[in-house]
Design brief:
With 305 residues, the chain is an alpha/beta fold. The protein contains ten helices and six strands; from the N terminus they run H-E-H-E-E-H-H-E-H-E-H-H-E-H-H-H. Strands 1, 2, 3, 4, 5 and 6 form a six-stranded parallel β-sheet that branches.
Length: 305
């Protein structure tokens, strides 16, 4: 598959920065099931069960989720700020045996990722901190509004206000890439800075949002079997994922965690609602889009010869 030109421009500087490091060498798949602890918001909900199924199909029946920290609409720092006495995420890292911590994020970088990375690296130099770079809620992004002007309404999630009208079907591929460019680059810069400070790549990117945009482009082009409109990917205007998008997200996590292509894995139960004659072609497309996003992201830790 061809990398989108705008995405390529977005990553050019980052690729150059890592081009001469050992982390960009071809990588081999992880050979054993990983112990995983996610600190997440609701765009990750449902992934644990999906990933367990996909990992087993991929040859990792020994994968285990050792716990989770779930906070709706959260930034990474909110999971870090849970009191130490009850902070299971910190305890998992301090134990020194955790393989992977997944951190879901929102908008501009915060210090939570850096704090978790330093703590994990201190107790296990081989720990991997994965930053899930998601799609943007409500198909909107205005960092100036988020930083300077927005005052959360009581009971509303702590991020930008919902626009007056949300129409997922009105989005274009070019518009989505442009909208996400600053968000993706801000997190890439943050990840690079943390790894540079630690002297090795401890923090990795999971390009979930990149794969989501690529899928929406296929839908716009009429090339997504079983899916006719972009809004079919979402359960609501905010953008909580429906089954096909959950499956795509799961494949991105699988590819980064195990440094292994999901292409060829059996149809997951998450796609049982898709018409039977469309499940196989859609599953293959989701696998291809996930793998394409992962191998083309310079901070995923996954390289192919």
């Amino acid at each position: 598959m061809i990398l989108r030109p705008l995405f390529g421009c977005l990553l050019l500087a980052t690729i150059s920065a890592w081009a001469q490091t050992p982390d960009t060498a071809p990588t081999t798949p992880i050979t054993k099931g990983q112990s995983i602890f996610p600190c997440h918001h609701s765009l990750f909900n449902g992934i644990q069960g999906n990933l367990a199924e996909v990992a087993k199909a991929g040859g990792y029946p020994d994968q285990v989720f050792v716990g989770e920290s779930a906070i709706g609409g959260s930034k990474a720092i909110q999971h870090w700020n849970v009191p130490d006495a009850t902070n299971q995420a910190k305890a998992a890292l301090i134990g020194g045996k955790l393989d992977v911590m997944i951190l879901t994020v929102l908008y501009l970088p915060d210090d939570g990722v850096e704090n978790f990375a330093k703590l994990g690296f201190e107790h296990n130099p081989n720990v991997r901190i994965l930053v899930m770079e998601p799609w943007l809620p409500w198909d909107v992004y205005n960092p100036n509004t988020y930083v300077a002007d927005y005052k959360p309404i009581p009971g509303e999630p702590p991020f930008m206000p919902k626009p007056a009208k949300v129409d997922h079907n009105a989005a274009t591929a070019a518009g989505l890439w442009k909208m996400h460019a600053y968000f993706f680059q801000a997190w890439n810069d943050k990840i690079e800075a943390i790894n540079k400070e630690l002297g090795r790549q401890v923090v990795f990117a999971e390009p979930v949002g990149h794969a989501e945009i690529a899928l929406r482009e296929k839908i716009i082009e009429g090339q997504a079997p079983g899916i006719k409109t972009q809004e079919e990917l979402f359960a609501d205007e905010l953008g909580h994922p429906q089954a096909p998008l959950l499956a795509l997200e799961t494949y991105v996590h699988y590819a980064v965690i195990y440094r292994k292509s999901p292409i060829g894995l059996p149809i997951p139960s998450a796609l049982s609602g898709i018409p039977m004659d469309q499940r196989g072609p859609l599953n293959l497309l989701l696998q291809q889009l996930a793998w394409d996003a992962v191998i083309h992201h310079p901070l995923s830790g996954v390289r192919v010869p």
